[in-house]
Design brief:
Structural class: alpha+beta
Strand content: 25-35%
Order of helices and strands: EEEEEEEEHH
Shape: elongated
Number of strands: 8
Helix content: 10-25%
Number of helices: 2
Radius of gyration: 26 Å
Distance between the termini: 81 Å
Largest sheet: 6 strands, mixed
Length: 188
């Protein structure tokens, strides 16, 4: 999923690509080993962008579209989430990112947030797609806004059924007061 920059000779080139959901590198790579991905790619990924060349700097402006599969944060049922994200990234050679010896650290500026780096005349489109997916997904994926979740006692999915569990909860810190109130009511 590498974009070979040596083939771009003109100042502007349009690129369209399609990747199957199981293509190596579409999603895998950001999750630590042994942990499960936050989502799965459910349908082919379509990416369309313009490459604007200015010397050694390349600007990629376009869109990525697909559907991602999640497990709902409340009821744990799987659901699909559409992604249609626009991106505008400036790619500069990796060597420009390195500070000169003796140069102090500097604060990130607004322009730095849209800047990425490439090496060996190649841009990793897999990384670009993963980044766009993670930016597009909700903080707390829900199958629907009104998802009722699972019963904390018996585990019944409250969207599809009801349970016989009682929802009365007493705070154990108030038992001493409850005992005093009971003695007082008995004295009357």
């Amino acid at each position: 999923m590498l974009l070979d920059l040596s083939q771009f000779r003109g100042p502007r080139t349009h690129v369209e690509r399609r990747y199957e959901p199981d293509a190596a590198g579409v999603v895998h790579g950001l999750t630590p080993p042994g942990e499960q991905e936050a989502f799965r790619v459910a349908e082919p990924v379509r990416v369309s962008f313009d490459v604007l060349k200015d010397g050694t700097h390349y600007r990629l402006v376009g869109r990525v579209a697909t559907r991602l599969s999640f497990d709902c944060s409340r009821c744990l049922e799987p659901f699909d989430f559409p992604v249609d994200a626009a991106f505008d990234l400036l790619y500069v050679p990796h060597a420009e990112n390195q500070a000169a010896p003796g140069e102090e650290e500097r604060e990130l500026e607004e322009d730095d947030l849209g800047t990425a780096y490439y090496r060996d005349e190649r841009i990793d489109l897999g990384q670009l797609l993963r980044e766009q997916f993670y930016l597009a997904v909700p903080m707390k994926p829900l199958c629907r806004d009104a998802c009722r979740g699972l019963c904390p006692r018996c585990g019944t999915n409250l969207n599809t059924g009801t349970c016989e569990c009682t929802e009365t909860w007493t705070d154990p810190r108030l038992e001493g007061l409850r005992a005093l109130a009971g003695k007082r009511d008995g004295d009357a």
